[in-house]
Amino acid sequence: METESTASPPSPPPPTTTSASTEPKLPVCILVLGMAGSGKTTFIQRINAYLHGEQTPPYIVNLDPAVHELPYPCNVDIRDTVNYKQVMKQYRLGPNGAIVTSLNLFSMTIDQLLSILNKNQTKYNYFLFDTPGQIEVFTWSASGTIITETLGATYPTIVVYIMDTPRSSNPITFMSNMLYAVSILYKYRLPFIIVLNKTDIIHHRFALEWMNDFELFQSAIEQEHSYSTDLCRSLSLVLDEFYSNLRCVGFSSMTGDGCKEFFDSINDACHEYEHVYKVEYNKWQEKKLKRENDKHEKDLKRLKEDLNTEQSIISEKRIRYDDIHNDEETDDDDDDDEDKDQDDFDQEDESFKRYLSKHVSNTTAMDT
Ligand SMILES: Nc1nc2c(ncn2[C@@H]2O[C@H](COP(=O)(O)OP(=O)(O)O)[C@@H](O)[C@H]2O)c(=O)[nH]1
Ligand SMILES: [Mg+2]
After folding, report:
1. Is the pLDDT of residue 364 over 60?
2. Which atom of ligand 1 is least distant from the CA of 38?
3. Ligand 2 mean position to 261 CA, how many Å?
4. Ligand 2 midpoint to CA 146 (Å)
5. Would you say the C-alpha torsion 113, 115, 118, 124 has a positive or negative sign?
6. Whose CA is nearest to atom 25 of ligand 1?
7. Shortest-distance atom of ligand 1 to CA 251
8. Ligand 1, atom 19: closest residue by C-alpha
9. Ligand 2: distance of its center to the CA of 137 in Å?
10. Closest ligand 1 atom to the C-alpha of 255?
11. Residue 155 and residue 25: Cα distance in Å, rounded?
């Protein structure tokens, strides 16, 4: 990641605090996912305009390396870090492979992204993330998991699943879309909102009714003469539980209808993040830490046992060494040498005395 791209300077958000404490509230990460063409980028554009109107402009991160033009000013752009066309050439990849690889390369700089977000966390209330057109690039890649889990561990993070409402008016397509949403929900376990987009084309009422009334959906399926009708019927029973806890908002990225309801849902989802996800996450972290500590203690114990065995080997070696050393010390070679030195010294002393007496007597004789 090289730079933060140009974006309008933020006006400071109103001082927000958690109800429980006076600590400043962390910005909310809104991760926008959805099928290609469902309207993710347009949705971010609309949300950005809405938040500017509320005097709380968001901080926007674009994670789509293949997008040509963005209809909003973004603060961090994956395209500044990875050149998607270059990735295609260099790794000889097709468009999808290059998007996955670009995202993988970008995820290697996640610590830099996090430190940029940390620096800006007092200035913004929302961090928005636009993701690649093809949903599976993000949801089924290691990089998508790394990015989502890192954000989820640091900030209140909400997954927003954009659904193309007109395209989902067919019950079978609706079911496929819902199955995809469930799979993402259970994969990330983060608070989840389904945005039924493009309500300017078709009202989202039918979708809400299908979710609330199982029999209405069944009768819609009956009219479809498809080989998957039976499968859809059974699946709708399974999804009943999923629907009951689901936040769904009708939205139009074109007209801006549903913005207020969307942010009501975000507040509700933040509450869930604090009281459910965060608690679960902390428990999981504690368990992980305990597992690591247990492993560390086991390793330490094993090391000590190994060291004890080594110690006995070392002790044995030391005894043998000491024996040799002691033998050397008891050896009387040194004493002999000392005696010899003393003898030599005595001899020299004697000869010097003789020399002196001789010369002294000669000198005295000459003087006289
Ligand atoms: N009528 C209508 N069109 C929309 C809406 N949201 C997006 N679109 C259109 O859907 C197409 C795909 O949108 P885009 O944001 O690029 O989708 P993405 O691939 O999910 O990012 C574009 O032509 C948009 O103009 C909406 O709420 N209403
Ligand atoms: Mg897009």
Report:
1. no
2. 20
3. 22
4. 20
5. negative
6. 42
7. 27
8. 37
9. 13
10. 27
11. 10
CA of 44 to the centre of ligand 2 (A): 9
Q: Which of 253, 255, 259 for mutating ligand 1's site (highest number of atoms within 8 Å of CB)?
A: 253
Among the bound ligands, the one closest to the CA of 66 = 2
C-beta atoms surrounding 80 within 10 Å:
15
Q: How far apart are alpha carbons 34 and 57 in whole angstroms? A: 23
Give distance in angstroms: CA of 269 to centre of ligand 1.
Answer: 24
* Confidence tier at 266 by pLDDT (50, 70, 90): very high
Task: Please state the three-class secondary structure of the chain as a single string.
Answer: CCCCCCCCCCCCCCCCECCCCCCECCCEEEEEEECCCCCHHHHHHHHHHHHHHCCCCCEEEECCCCCCCCCCCCCEEHHHHCCHHHHHHHHCCCHHHHHHHHHHHHHCCHHHHHHHHHHHCCCCCEEEEECCCCHHHHHCCHHHHHHHHHHHHHCCEEEEEEEECHHHHCHHHHHHHHHHHHHHHHHHCCCEEEEEECCCCCCCHHHHHHHHCHHHHHHHHHCCCCCCHHHHHHHHHHHHHHHHCCEEEECCCCCCCCHHHHHHHHHHHHHHHHHHHHHHHHHHHHHHHHHHHHHHHHHHHHHHHHHHHHHHHHHHHHHHHHHHHHHHHHCCHHHHHHHHHHHHHHHHHHHHHHHHHHHHHHHHHHHC
Q: Which CATH superfamily is domain 28-281 in?
A: P-loop containing nucleotide triphosphate hydrolases (3.40.50.300)
Gyration radius from the chain CA atoms? 40
Q: Enumerate the domain spans of the chain.
A: 28-281, 337-367
Distances (CA, A) of 85 to 66, 77, 93, 94: 8, 15, 10, 10
pTM: 0.76
- Reported as a single tens digit per residue, the pLDDT across 203-261 is 999 999 999 888 898 888 888 777 777 788 888 888 888 888 889 999 999 999 999 99
Mutate to test the pocket of ligand 1, among 41, 42, 199 (most ligand atoms within 8 A of CB): 42
